[in-house]
Amino acid sequence: MRKARWSGAAGPLVSKLRRQRSSTLSATETSSERRERDTVRRAHRFGSWAATATRHSPWEDALGIVAGVTLTAVGVAILGSLGFLTGGMAGLAFVVHYLFGVNFGLAFFVLNLPFYALAIGRMGRAFTVKTAFAVALLSLMTAFSGEALRFAYVDPLVGACLGGLMLGFGLLALFRHRSSAGGVGILAVYLQDRFGWRAGLTQLGVDLLVLVTAFAAVSPVAVAYSVLGAMVLNLFLAINHRTDRYLAV
After folding, report:
1. What mean pLDDT is predicted for residues 76-82?
2. What CA dihedral angle connects 66, 227, 143 and 115, to 10 degrees?
3. At what angle do helices 88-100 and 199-212 cross, to 10 degrees?
């Protein structure tokens, strides 16, 4: 009888000690361990989702970059046909093109050159090589896109949204293959990897600054449509480009 009474009295005490130990272990758990635990839970929940990152093969990277550049070039062609622009280095290239008549592809290629120093110093050689390839290919495609793509009529509202969306899909493909379209994209990917800042929001802030300078090159109406396209682009990236939702590298 005494043993039974002691066990009954000790039961709550044992439970309390176990809870304290569990809370202590939870407090000492690192953020990376918590992320890994959450990833495993999601993997079990969704079944087919791999719990660990898998690497893209060189062929997968090449095809992904070509696809991303192609989508980006189509977005640039849509915006250019309407006299609109976008943010980042592409926006500056549009401004140079509209003000001085310089070919967009050439301006885009030259403006991106200084950012390779940041890329190779902070993001590594592989990222820099893939980004240089993407920038060169995009410059080449946009230089000759006027001969391959001609739009008879595009509604300005639809064109701004569709152009921004195409740019978003293209940049997302590049980001997920550890590449970028250069310029602000390099900075955005670096800040996301280093500080966890979302690439889309970083790009949005820079893009708005670039679009302010657009008043010197295009009409206020064109700037307004360009801002809309930039918002579509960057909100798309902010929603979809997250390291906790895509595990391939």
Report:
1. 94
2. -70
3. 20
pTM of the prediction? 0.71
Q: How far apart are CA 26 and CA 6, in angstroms?
A: 30
pLDDT tens, 205-226? 777 778 788 888 899 999 999 9
Quote the tokens at residue 77: 């062609």
Is the separation of the CB atoms in 136 and 65 below 8 Å? no
Biggest alpha carbon–alpha carbon distance for the chain: 98
User: How deeply is 128 buried, as exposed, middle or buried, from its count of CB atoms within 10 A (0-12, 13-18, 19+)?
Assistant: buried
pLDDT over threshold 80, residue 174: yes
pLDDT at 220: 93
Whose tokens are 């310089």? That residue is: 102
User: Alpha-carbon distance 181 to 65, whole Å?
Assistant: 10
Distance in angstroms (rounded) separating the CA atoms of residues 79 and 76: 5
Length, in residues, of the chain: 249
Burial class (CB within 10 angstroms; exposed 0-12, middle 13-18, buried 19+) of 5: exposed
At residue 206, the pLDDT reads 77
